[in-house]
Amino acid sequence: MTTAAIDTTILAILAPFAAAAVAPIATKVLKHNAAWLLALVPAFIFFHFAGFVAAVSEGQTFVISREWAPSYGINLSFFVDGLSTLFALLISGIGTFIILYAGGYLKGHPQQGRFFSFLFLFMGAMMGLVTGNNLITLFIFWELTSITSFLLIGFDHLRAASRRAALQALVVTGGGGLALLAGFVLIIGVTKEIEMSVLLQNPDIIKNSGWYLPIFLLVLGGAFTKSAQFPFHFWLPNAMEAPTPVSAFLHSATMVKAGVYLLMRMHPLLGDTALWTTVLPLFGGVTLLVGTLLAVRQTDLKLMLAYTTVASLGLLVMLVGTSVEKALEGAVLYLLAHSLFKGALFMVAGTVDHEAGTRDITRLGGLKGAMPVTFTAACLAAFSMCGFFPFIGFIAKEVLYEGTLEAGSGALLITATAVLGNALMLVIAAAVAIKPFLGAKVETPKHAHEGPVMLFAGPVVLSLTGLVAAVMTHATGTLFIGPMLSSITGQPAETELHLIPAHIAAPLFVSLGTFALGILLYFQLNRLRDLISGILTAIGWGPDKGFDQFVAGLVSLSNGVTRFVQGGKMQTYMTLTFVATAVAVLLPRYVTGGWPEVPAMPDYTFYEWGILFIAAIGLVAVLVAKTRLTAIVSLGIQGFAVALIFMLFGAPDLSFTQFMVETLSVVILALVMTRLNLNPRDHRPFGASVISAIIAAGVGIGMGLTLMAVTQQPFDSRLSDFFAEFSRTVAHGRNIVNVIIVDFRGFDTLGEISVVVLTGLCVLALIRVRTKPEDRLTPRAGTEARNKKLEARR
Fold first, then answer.
1. What are the backbone dihedrals phi and psi of residue 141, each rounded to the nearest 5 degrees, phi first?
2. Is residue 432 a contact partner of residue 346, using CB atoms and an 8 Å limit?
């Protein structure tokens, strides 16, 4: 690629962030026409990535990189291949119509500019995620999708339900993101590589390492939470509290597929193992059935579609988990089909709500005459969702059934799960497309009529695209499906798709069985809904309620820990601090066996023995001191002894500093103790004294061992040589110590000065405290005085 092409691609990926900054201004100036201008940004991205299609279909890949944090080996790196290209086209293509749809849906809303800004921020995060090559780059964009979706879900922040849904989505997906980060760190540690394109050149490196299991589990933690796999599925339907443009964009076509994208991207590195082909089909199949059964229970159009999105994500995970090439091809086809028909149906649901005033299918009917364009788009999208001929959904179901039938020992169970799930999704698709529009006309809260072009442009184009993609089967397979399948399998893959089945085989009969079962269940929809509602009512508990209980328990635990750790007792604070210090310095050495060698007794001179003797006398004085003030003064003996050692070993500047610090410490602490009248010594029980002695010994021994281990390491003189070489030539100073403090470590020195100043201010505040007369009495006398005051008040 030329430099201009690289710069243009980076501009296309990051353009939404610039649009996010411009959107509020454009909305304020252009009012309801701003959407037409803003939609040009995702349209530009779409046409730019469409330019990669021909080259990618021929097997080419592109790595686009710019330095970001070179000292850490982190580049702003992007990878364009079949997988990232199709996702980029879906994000930008559907995003174009989402921007237009939001312009019509939120027309006149006082915060429409802010909404556009959030949408573009999310679009940029998704573009960076699906094209990210550097693992750190990918993770940053991954977390940005969680943050921006939090903003979008909680857009109507005055409603408690919106705030709860936003927080729930952030907690679940954010927790998964932390697991993913740990997985990426392990991958980097095991492979010594940070670029995805490089890792894919040696796909077995992780499988052959001893770290495959933790990496697998951590990556699955990120993918399952983001793509709402059971038992993390509950956050996605709750996110329907967001405005419909958010539902259509984030939770059908883009964000929720980020987890599926990650699994597809990592398939060459982690897939096709016994663990992969067991865990993914299991959780994917359960998610498929749970999502469809919960969808049947709903009467809200958006919730019905939301639960089928959960089911579709489960179907995709199940197919990816088989690691069968035909099933993977079916997953790619279904991903494309799902993005088109689900995005269209969500926008249809929003249009019905916007123009009729309700999304409840029990309060809708006969809208066909009032909303003919919306009805047509709903039917076309629903046909693809049902898998009817001649839509892309039909081809996807044929191929995925062919793949599940080849899935080895679990083929029958996986196929049966797919059949039942697809039949129930047919029921929902038919309900969404038929019940609001056909039948007797029902009086709705608003006088229903066809929406403006901004509202129906997206559903019409997306549903027709599903038809065109099926009619142009060969081009779809060659340009999109084949390259994406090659990226997932890690090897060249050829696709042979047919709109009309080339021969009558088992997949066709399975499809016909799915249609028959779906039609049968549709006519029993009300009974089925009542049955599932009764079962769920009897159970009475689920992951959604469990999340609230988990959060409440976490808050209670945090309060309990805070009350214990921050209970207001200095003794508790000091004890916990020193226990943590002892554990930190001793436990790693115990676990690793990294004990230092015991040094030989040095040949001290008489005056060196004298200094050690003075230090020992100071220690005994501290232990036997009758008052705190005496203990403080005695403690200063230790510091003076250390200062003398510095002086003997040729460090007069350190010695002078130590003398000053010890003198000031003793004076300041003595002043504080005098003002606070804390002269009496603590009289603690013998057991408490023993515990304190053990803790003190642990800290002292741990620090001593640490210093011994450090001094026994080979001396690295590079830093000393650097200071010696450049102190005169760069900093123009002859005193190396002063140059280090003032120039090389100027910010450290400033920080230390700030700490000293703050400490002095705190001490000054303590000294200026004026206590009441009764507070100067003994604790018992003070208690009696307070009791007398209470009696007088009574």
1. -70, -35
2. no
Bridge partners of 65, per DSSP, are 77
What is the pLDDT at residue 682? Answer: 60
- Element spanning 81, H or E: none
Give per-residue pLDDT as tens, 177-196: 999 999 999 999 999 999 99
Q: Which helix (H) or strand (E) holds 67?
A: strand 62-69
DSSP 404-417: HTTSGGGHHHHHHH
Beta bridge partner(s), residue 360: 300
Read off the DSSP letter of residue 79: E
Locus of tokens 């009467």: 299
Q: Would you list the DSSP string of 468-532? A: HHHHTHHHHIIIIIHHHHHHHHTS-------SS-SS--HHHHHHHHHHHHHHHHHTTHHHHHHHH
Contacts of 726 (CB under 8 A, 6+ apart): none
Nearest to 333 by CA among 411, 252, 272, 391: 391
CB atoms inside a 10 Å sphere around CB 411: 16
| Chain centroid, CA 466 distance in Å | 32
- Dig out the tokens for 457 from the structure: 């442009």
Residue 710 tokens read as 């450090």
Which residues, in sequence order, are CB contacts of 279 under 8 Å at separation 6+?
220, 321
For residues 177 and 223, give the distance between their C-alpha atoms in angstroms, rounded to a whole number: 9
Identify whether the C-beta of residue 306 lies closer than 8 Å to the C-beta of residue 228.
no
Paired tokens of 171:
């907690």
Question: Which residues partner with 134 through β-bridges?
Answer: 195
**Residue 301 to residue 378: CA distance in whole angstroms:** 12
Query: For 723-778, how does the pLDDT look when each residue is reduced to its tens digit (9 = 90+)?
Result: 888 888 888 888 888 888 888 878 888 888 898 888 888 877 876 765 555 444 44
| DSSP code, position 33 | G
- Residues 206/184, Cβ–Cβ less than 8 Å: no
CATH 1.20.120.1200 in the chain, residues? Answer: 607-713
Instruction: Report the pLDDT value the prediction gives residue 786, as an integer from 0 to 100.
Output: 52
Query: Is the peptide bond between 602 and the residue preceding it cis, with omega within 30 degrees of 0?
Result: no
3-class DSSP state for residue 644?
helix
Amino acid found at 673: M
* pLDDT tens by residue, 244-257: 999 888 866 577 89
Q: CB neighbours of 78 closer than 8 A, spacing ≥ 6?
A: 9, 10, 13, 63, 64, 65, 84, 128, 131, 132, 133, 137
CA 399 to centroid of chain Cα atoms: 33
Secondary-structure class of domain 607-713 per CATH: mainly alpha
Distance from C-alpha of 327 to C-alpha of 485, rounded to nearest angstrom: 10
Q: Any residues with CB less than 8 A from the CB of 101 and at least 6 apart, and which?
A: 244, 245, 248, 347, 350, 454, 455, 457, 458
Nearest to 86 by CA among 98, 97, 94, 74: 94
Averaged pLDDT score across all residues of the chain: 88
What was the pLDDT predicted at 771?
52
What pLDDT is recorded for position 777? 45
Confidence band, pLDDT 50/70/90 cuts, at residue 93: very high
CB-CB contact of 699 with 582 (8 Å): yes
Instruction: Give the pair of three-digit tokens for residue 351.
Output: 């249009």
Residue 62, strand partner residues: 80
pTM: 0.81
- The H or E element that residue 68 is part of is strand 62-69
Q: Which helix (H) or strand (E) holds 64?
A: strand 62-69
Instruction: Look at the block and give the residue holding tokens 């003064």.
Output: 633
Q: Is 234 helix (H, G, I), strand (E, B) or coil?
A: coil
Query: Band of the pLDDT at 790, cuts 50, 70, 90?
Result: very low
Contact present, 240 and 303 (Cβ < 8 Å)? yes
Element (H, E) at 622: helix 606-624
Residue 226 has pLDDT above 60, yes or no: yes
Tokens for 259?
């987890």
Let me know the angle formed at the C-alpha of 337 by 331 and 338, rounded to the nearest 5 degrees: 85
